[in-house]
Design a protein that fits this description.
Order of helices and strands of chain B: HHHHHEHEHEHEEHEEHEEE
CATH architecture of chain A: 3-Layer(aba) Sandwich
Structural class of chain B: alpha/beta
Shape of chain A: globular
CATH superfamily of the largest domain in chain B: Vaccinia Virus protein VP39
Order of helices and strands of chain A: HEHEHEEEEEHEHEHEH
Largest sheet of chain A: 7 strands, parallel
Strand order of the largest sheet of chain A: 3-5-2-1-8-9-10
Structural class of chain A: alpha/beta
Strand content of chain A: 15-25%
CATH topology of chain A: Rossmann fold
Strand content of chain B: 15-25%
Oligomer: heterodimer
Number of domains of chain B: 2
Shape of chain B: globular
Number of strands of chain B: 10
CATH topology of the largest domain in chain B: Rossmann fold
Distance between the termini of chain A: 20 Å
CATH architecture of the largest domain in chain B: 3-Layer(aba) Sandwich
Chain lengths: ~200, ~280
């Protein structure tokens, strides 16, 4: 990051209202490098879409609850966003952000063969929270997330992408970078630091 | 950074649809409505929502096709097998004590859920005491439901679901295949009544022992959810059952106290006796 970029992102950090993360193949290992590092003082809610099989119960909450310092939940329909909480999209539902800051679910058709879809979450989050939004795309083997991240960037939000050469599967981060040329491209540890700093500035 | 002009246009479009066609989407979850309207606008080749409004207000056929964008039709036979297993194991024993049973599938789409229940009831030996009422706001879906015709390529999924739900027979007993389609057996359709009913605008619907309304409330805002849940409360007999979708609950509803959690995991509620 250049100095001006750091100053810019510092200004933005003051007002971040939510963080959205999307990932697919290799998701669990990648998220394990990031989410457990978020400190108890972490303020913005974090909404995570992971592509999961539709017909099985997700174990993400159990897995991360035991390792994270902030609350971890699976999204329920019309649930209000609470600061310092990580929300996982449930299998077989899209998650969308409503204007009143609640989350709603939808069974609309899959996007990029995926339900939940990263694009669906990112686009609705951009609509409500931009420019005070951080969008993060991590490892994954399809193109979901690129269009949504572009919407966040266009809305003036911060966009962060895992460096494709450091990703378990590079297709998703590469597609996101192609769609958002100015995005910060970082390793998982750098992304964790970047997110932790969102809170330190406050 | 939602676009204020677009938000106004969308509100006006929904208001126009309500006044012209009496379909009320004003209380739907807006994030999802916006997404589906964006798809519709693209499909209709309209550069703005105002143009889309102009089109659908003057062309009833255009509205009919817009309606299929606005109503989400996603279902399967025995979708969420664990839900049907819970009905089979926990709810059916209660229903068996009634001399006659009325079941309402609210938001029945193309009838998949209703026929799943009819098959379940037959397997449990209570079908001949039951009537099944399927309601939806989409006339196209209701026609499909009444016909009970599904694409053959969906059958393997349906069959898997049925087995996972604890099915005691072979699904093949309940349909005949021909011309690339599976037709639900006439004897099952005989006990089904499909009709147009809106959870937004219409009122109480009979004395039901079981209401199943899954993945419908997620498209409503909280006020409208409450209206629908109140409707279910008033349409159920004492100790009647309400089944919701896997991620829906009564937690945020003002009617929550009127129900007891019957199966927390499968989102089945029982109306309390004395309210």
């Amino acid at each position: 990051m250049s100095e001006s970029e750091i100053i810019q992102s510092g200004e933005r950090k003051m007002s971040i209202r939510a963080v959205v993360i999307g990932t697919s193949a290799g998701a669990v290992d990648a998220l394990l490098r990031i989410l457990p590092k978020l400190p108890e003082s972490f303020v913005p809610p974090v909404i995570v879409v992971v592509h999961l099989p539709a017909d099985r119960r997700s174990v993400m909450v159990e897995l991360f609850e035991a390792r994270c310092r902030i609350a971890v939940r699976e999204v329920e329909d019309k649930e209000p966003l609470v600061p310092g909480t990580i929300y996982f999209a449930p299998p077989d539902y899209h998650v969308l952000v409503e204007a009143d800051g609640r989350l709603s679910l939808s069974s609309e058709e899959p996007v990029h063969y995926s339900r939940p879809s990263i694009d669906v979450l990112f686009e609705s989050a951009a609509d409500v929270f931009c420019p005070s939004l951080v969008g993060v795309v991590l490892t994954g083997a399809n193109m979901d997330g690129a269009t949504g991240l572009r919407m966040i960037q266009r809305g003036g939000g911060a966009v962060v992408v895992q460096r494709p050469d450091s990703a378990y599967a590079s297709t998703m981060p590469q597609a996101a970078l192609d769609a958002c040329p100015g995005a910060l491209s970082l390793t998982l540890d750098q992304i964790a630091d970047y997110l932790c700093e969102l809170t330190m500035v406050r | 950074m939602s676009n204020p002009t677009e938000d106004i246009e969308i509100r006006l479009l929904l208001e126009g649809i309500f006044r012209r066609y009496h379909y009320d989407f004003r209380g739907y979850s807006m994030a999802s409505v916006k997404r589906r309207l964006a798809q519709a606008r693209e499909r209709f080749g309209c550069s703005t929502y105002s143009r889309l409004q102009d089109l659908v207000l003057h062309d009833a056929a255009a509205f009919t096709s817009l309606l299929s964008f606005l109503t989400v039709q996603v279902s399967e036979l025995f979708r969420d097998p664990a839900y049907f297993r819970a009905l089979r194991e926990l709810v059916i024993p209660h229903l068996k004590t009634y001399p006659s049973i009325k079941v309402w599938v609210a938001g029945c789409s193309a009838g998949e859920e209703l026929y799943s229940l009819a098959i379940l009831f037959r397997e449990e030996g209570i079908e001949d005491r039951a009537m099944f009422y399927g309601t939806d706001i989409n006339p196209e879906a209701l026609q499909k439901a009444e016909a009970g015709v599904y694409e053959l390529d969906r059958i393997p999924q349906f069959t898997r679901n049925h087995q996972l739900s604890g099915g005691k027979s072979s699904l093949a007993e309940y349909y005949t295949a021909g011309y690339g389609a599976a037709i639900i057996d006439k004897s099952l359709r005989k006990r089904a009544v499909f009709s147009d009913h809106s959870l937004v605008a219409d009122s109480v619907f009979g004395e039901m022992q079981l209401i199943s309304c899954r993945n419908v409330l997620i498209y409503f805002d909280r006020e409208l959810q409450d209206r629908a849940i109140g409707l279910f409360k008033d349409s159920l007999v004492r100790k009647g059952f309400l089944g919701l979708g896997a991620k829906e609950s009564l937690r945020f509803s003002q009617h929550a106290d009127a129900f007891a959690e019957f199966s927390r995991e499968e989102r089945i509620y029982q109306k309390r006796g004395a309210v």
